[in-house]
Structure formats: C-alpha cells, structure tokens
Amino acid sequence: MNPFLAADYRDGRVRIGNKTYAAGVYAVHLLNQYYKNDTAARLSVYKQHGWNVAEQIAVGYLKETDFISAGTEIGLNLDTLPMLKPFDQFNIDDERNRISDLFSENNANQITDFFHCRSAAESKLQTELDLDLLPPEYDKKFFKESNALIAEITETLAFYNAVSEDMQKVYKQLTAFVGRIDEVARFDEEHLLPIALEVFGAVPFPVTTEYVPTRKNAKSKTVTLARRLYFDSYYSFIITDFFEGLHYGHYPRRCGVCKKYFLMTSARRQQYCNGLSPYEVRGKRVTCRKYAANINRKELAAADPVVDIYNRRCAAIRTEKGRKTITEEFAKAAQALAKEYKLKAQQDAAYASRQYAIDMSRDRLYAETDKRLK
Predict the structure, then answer these.
(1) Rg of the chain, C-alpha, whole Å
(2) Strand pairing partners for 16?
C-alpha cells in the first residue's frame, strides 16, 4: 500500500486498483464509517510520537526511542485504516513491512549521524570552500541518501499524523452539506455547487496529475484516457472525490428510514435508500423505500423534476385529445416524443438541467411532433 493515494477519474467514475465506482462514493463511505467501529476515534489515538519525530527532524535532531515508537504507532493505525475505503484495497502487509524498515534502529542511527555530520560540515564549509576544498565531514553519497530517507520519513509522517484530523474536518463539512441540500430548487451541479463552495471554502492543496490509458470496465477491449491524481493527504482525496462526483450530479443523501448515507446520481428528491431497512414488514426484511411506502411515506413522482415535467405534459396532451383540439394520432406521437425526451434527460444530466424543460414546453414539443408527422 502506498500511503499517498492515487485514483483514476473519467466520466464521473473513479477507479482505484481493480475497483470502479461512481465518483463521490468514497465521501459517502466516510460518512457511514466515521462512527462505526470507532474508526475516527481509533485513528486519533496513536500519533503523539509521530508528532514528536516530525518536530525533531524539522529542527535537526532525533530521539531514537521516539523514532521507533512512531513506527509502532503507524502499525497500530494500519489495524484500523482497512475499515475505511479505499485503504481496504491496498496491500496492508506490504505497507507494514515498509514502515518497519523505514522506522528502524539503523535508519535512526543514520539520521543522527547525518545531523552531526551536517552540523560539522556547515561550521567549516565556508572556510573550506574558500580553499576549493570540501570538509571531511561531507560525504556526497551519504548526504544524498540521508536527505532522501528524511524526505520519505517526513512525507510518511505528514500523511499518517493528519489522517484523523482529515477525517474529522471533512466529516463535519460533508454532514453540513447534506443538511443543506434541501434548500435548493434542483439537485444538480448548478444549484448544489454554491452550497458546496460555501461549506468547504477555497482550500488549495497539491495534487499531482498524469494522463493514463485505462479500460472502462473489465470486459472492455479498448482503452480510453483517464486522469490519474496523486494525493498527499486523505483530506485532499475525499474533497476531490466529492467535487468530481458533484460535477456529474452525484451527491450524498441521508436515508429517512435507516439514517445511513447513500449516493444519489440523479436530480430526484429521493428520501430513502435502496438498502435493507432495519425494520420488517409482515416478518420480512424490505428495502427502506418499500418500508416507507408501506407506512404511507412513499415518495411522490413530483419529487423527480424530470418525471414531474413529463407527467404534466402527458396530462395536458390527454386533456387536449379529450377536447378534440388535437387528433388521436397527434397525441400519440407527442406522447412518444415526450417519453423520448424524458429518457434522454434521465441519462444526460446536462440535457436535463439546460434543455429538457424547453423541449417539453407545449409549443416546442408540438412543433417537433408536427415535423415528424409530415
């Protein structure tokens, strides 16, 4: 496992390892996992020695016992991280071995020796340079290896020291966002983005990007281009996953029955998830949506703006047909066209938010129907 996350994004999908999901799913997983099995609490316990070592290295000294203990703390956190996606997809044993090798007694001694040599070299360096000589304390290969070792240790500590705070911060922001989405008229990027920006703010973080060939799924024979993003923190990964999802109309919702979070991928005002309800109906487990329907809390079709527009237009067509203001043939063709537009809107979020309502207006729909009948 590489503690510095990498993920491939394309067309509203995210791929890590051999798993592909809708973008935004990892943000939803965090919302559901935060309190389950005390995930957040466990990760917040083991980091004191990691903090100490990071501070020591920054000022140029190292206490060996703290260094060894920092590696032990990270090992304890690796018992908890696999509970949190996407860490369950990484090779934890390989990461344990890397941490064990990195925070070893030999490396502690090397870093201590390096600090001593660097200090001695710096005190003589200017004098020696005036004579075009390097001090005996300066060993180019040793200094290069030691600087690379310290860089790896520093990056590793930065990642693991911040995981628990990253979880706490992004969890509060995500729950604040979910709590406000019902304020908007439509659940699409245009309406949800202002709330997201207000909740999360403008927080720049470094993300390295490269373009890589990938297959859309395991059965694909051809490859396409995807953006591979490398993250130096868990926070930057979750925020990116959330906004990548939001760009394609994906957003987290909280089920009104089981209270778990789920990922919506359409503009419907769906209140309940399709997971199993914690309650039974006539002795059988049913989905939350079916349970809600059973207790007369069924969602209205009007909650789905796409279906709502379609239903109202079809009702108007039936009314005009009954009044003989349009022929039966014309009414049938107009309803078929309206259904065509509805299906397109359900598959294309951009069309649904920008053009669907225009195409479904009486004048536009009837004009297109008239063209098709001629």
Answers:
(1) 29
(2) 19
Q: Report the DSSP beta bridge partners of residue 209.
A: 229
- The SS3 call for residue 86 is coil
3-state secondary structure of 207: strand
Instruction: Give me the pLDDT at residue 253, please.
Output: 94
Helices first, then strands: H and E counts in the chain: 15, 9
Q: How far apart are CA 172 and CA 87, in angstroms?
A: 21
Q: Mind listing the pLDDT tens digit for each residue in 96-119? A: 999 999 999 999 999 999 998 888
**Tens-place pLDDT, residues 175-222:** 999 999 888 888 888 889 999 999 998 777 777 889 888 877 667 778
pLDDT, one tens digit per residue, over 20-46 is 899 999 999 999 998 888 888 888 888
In this structure, the chain runs to a length of: 374
In whole angstroms, what is the distance from residue 73 CA to residue 372 CA?
70
Question: 303: exposed, middle or buried (C-beta count within 10 Å: 0-12, 13-18, 19+)?
Answer: middle
| 3 state SS of 152 | helix
Instruction: Provide φ and ψ at 62, rounded to 5°.
Output: -150, 130
Q: How big is the CA angle at 305 (ends 302 and 308), to the nearest 5 degrees?
A: 45
pLDDT of res. 213: 86
Do residues 277 and 59 make contact, with C-beta atoms less than 8 angstroms apart? no
Q: Measured in Å, how far apart are the chain's first and last C-alpha atoms?
A: 64
211 burial via Cβ count (<10 Å: 0-12, 13-18, 19+): exposed
Q: Which of 274, 273, 271, 261 is nearest to 34 (CA)?
A: 261
Q: State CA 304 to chain mean position distance.
A: 25
Angle at 295 between CA 293 and CA 298, to 5 degrees: 30
Q: What Cα–Cα distance (Å) separates residue 329 from each residue in 91, 311, 319, 336, 338?
A: 63, 19, 14, 11, 14
Decide if pLDDT at 298 tops 70. Answer: no
